[in-house]
Amino acid sequence: VRCWSNIPFITMPLSRAHGKSFAHRSELKHAKRIVVKLGSAVVTRGDECGLALGRLASIVEQVSMLQNQGREMMIVTSGAVAFGKQRLRHEILLSQSVRQALHSGQSQLKDMAIPVLEARACAAAGQSGLMALYEAMFTQYSICAAQILVTNLDFHDEQKRRNLNGTLHELLRMNIVPIINTNDAVVPPPEPNSDLQGVNVISVKDNDSLAARLAVEMKTDLLIVLSDVEGLFDSPPGSDDAKLIDIFYPGDQQSVTFGTKSRVGMGGMEAKVKAALWALQGGTSVVIANGTHPKISGHVITDIVEGKKVGTFFSEVKPAGPTVEQQGEMARAGGRTLAALQPEQRAEIIYRLADLLTDQREEILLANKKDLEEAENKGRLALPLLKRLSLSTSKLNSLAIGLRQIAASSRDSVGRVIRRTRIAKDLDLEQVTVPIGVLLVIFESRPDCLPQVSALAIASGNGLLLKGGKEAAHSNQILHHLTQEALSIHGVKDAVQLVNTREEVEDLCRLDKLIDLIIPRGSSQLVRDIQKAAKGIPVMGHSEGICHVYVDTEASVEKVTRIIRDSKCEYPAACNALETLLIHRDLLRTPLFDQIIDMLRVEQVKIHAGPRFASYLTFSPSEVKSLRTEYGDLECCIEVVDSVQEAVEHIHKYGSSHTDVIITENEKTAEFFLQHVDSACVFWNASTRFSDGYRFGLGAEVGISTSRIHARGPVGIEGLLTTKWLLRGDNHVVSDFSEHGTMKYLHESLPLPQRNTN
């Protein structure tokens, strides 16, 4: 029977009955009772003499934080031998210095070398000091710790087992962290042939087996085993082909090669795996991770409990489909095959997908109806997001038209020569377009994004991983099925993968060896989160769409209200919708200004006044809280400026470099605005809503980028390509071009091959 902790701010309820381990990492956040096993390599310094105090302090901080959340934490620790070795060496050196003072002569000093220290003596000398250190550290967090020393015999004696169990439960009930260690001062040497003895017994011969035994005895939810390696690898760590195993299943050990044991301690990785599998069989989830890496050790325990992809997770439930790592490899291989196809074949795939969108219209709309009904029943989506989630016949028809545009423009994308140079005689250089590699596109609430992005990836020869929101699961599933059906006509079905596992977005952003570019499609918060989480992978996108329209003194009355209405009201949730309206000061209290205000009121647009605009009004609308606001609804800010120069300065200070517009009949003023506004899209007398891949004639877009590197603005096929250099020579070597060589550089520009414009 488990007990509640007695602290008054309990936040973690008992989440389940013990007996079955967690199936997925995402469930680890429900773990109530946790054992943290600290290996010798984690606790000790690199010289194996003394403790790694900084690392230990970080571990205590993490355990304390989880304990104060209402979890029940236990620590199985090594380190007594190392701490004792440090103390005994100090005593021996001190003794030697005393003897040196009493005796003289080199012959005496030769006999005073430090002897080999026996491990049990070191443990006896170090146990009290180690515990005192733990107590001092936990006291900083107002947590009490208690020491328990055990041996293998304590588990063989039924009465001792009951006593140990009762003691641990009582300590946990009193919100005390038990710190358990094998009593190395009296423990006998390990027996070489003593190992697992059936499903109910494990021989306690090191702290790995001790932690597993305790975890099962105490019906623990989670066992975290920290060592000096990242987790379990499919071959010895450090070898060229070694890959970290994210999830390990019982039976997989046959395909794993174990390396040498830890630099210190009794057990190696093989012992850890056997102990972990025994604990898993007993109903305890297990994660083996690195507790020594300086970049992650400060949060490794909390990351594991939060369900992040750290170390190797042991699970009894094997997923029905491939892992996301396998999907990434499939997308990479499929993308390379896709890029090797003829342009006409890639276009044929996209044309087929366009046909399927209209031919299978009823099935698509039925799946989308399920998503809409579930979203409405759960009430978890705001109205603008529900609109994005909804598909219709007209939307599918527009999608099909856009896909056909992509197919038509894709015939001369991959492999196009963009530069030719004759380096020297018979030495010609070409720069050609090639796919980026594997794209990860993460999108929210917009199932129409899936065929658009898929078509662009196919046209550019890129492999694609898609991660859609769960609110569009049914729609995404059928659209992905149709995409794979179209890809199958040329045997490249695997090039586009839909991630259906419980992978967190943050974990996907860490797959830097599988993914070459991340493209987020969704809210500004989603984009910011992905930009923050991405580890070594470039992110293409924009975090906000704060678009401006500046109305100049020479603006046309007929154009102003039409452009403003379209920019704000046509689709207010879009990232290219108007958010701030800049009015020249001379237009205040004019009929044109009154028409603008009347139109916004008729359209039920809520107006927020900028500071300067508010100062001109006796009774002003609510003053804006920030001039950097993306409303995403029928709301906008109005601010006053004195000139086009001031409008440009305002946009640079408060804008997001997305899309900005000037309305004027003065060409000189318009050109000044177009040349000086530093945004991805700058328009004259046109709605902000034209900032779109389809409207630009790109067929579709994977997103709108405000980045200054690579692609900018609506990103179509061109933005998903990079280049490589091809050099064709005939026995050329650099030494021939030296001062005394026989060849000279020409560096002549050569004409480009004729492009296929059909």
Automatic annotation (TrEMBL):
It holds the Pfam family Aldedh. Residues 32-290 form the Aspartate/glutamate/uridylate kinase domain. GO terms for biological process: L-proline biosynthetic process. Residues 324-588 form the Aldehyde dehydrogenase domain. Pathway: Amino-acid biosynthesis; L-proline biosynthesis; L-glutamate 5-semialdehyde from L-glutamate: step 1/2; Amino-acid biosynthesis; L-proline biosynthesis; L-glutamate 5-semialdehyde from L-glutamate: step 2/2. One of its GO terms (molecular function) is glutamate 5-kinase activity. It is found in: Mitochondrion matrix. Its EC number is 1.2.1.41, 2.7.2.11. SUPFAM superfamilies: ALDH-like (SSF53720), Carbamate kinase-like (SSF53633). Keywords: Amino-acid biosynthesis, ATP-binding, Kinase, Mitochondrion, Multifunctional enzyme, NADP, Nucleotide-binding, Oxidoreductase, Proline biosynthesis, Transferase. One of its GO terms (cellular component) is mitochondrial matrix. It comes from the Eukaryota. CDD domains: AAK_P5CS_ProBA (cd04256), ALDH_F18-19_ProA-GPR (cd07079). Its main location: mitochondrion. InterPro entries: AceGlu_kinase-like_sf, Ald_DH/histidinol_DH, Ald_DH_C, Ald_DH_N, Aldehyde_DH_dom, Asp/Glu/Uridylate_kinase, G-glutamylP_reductase_CS, G5K_ProBA. It catalyses: L-glutamate 5-semialdehyde + phosphate + NADP(+) = L-glutamyl 5-phosphate + NADPH + H(+); L-glutamate + ATP = L-glutamyl 5-phosphate + ADP. Can form homodimers/multimers. In the N-terminal section; belongs to the glutamate 5-kinase family. In the C-terminal section; belongs to the gamma-glutamyl phosphate reductase family. HAMAP family: ProA (MF_00412), ProB (MF_00456). Bifunctional enzyme that converts glutamate to glutamate 5-semialdehyde, an intermediate in the biosynthesis of proline, ornithine and arginine. This is Delta-1-pyrroline-5-carboxylate synthase.
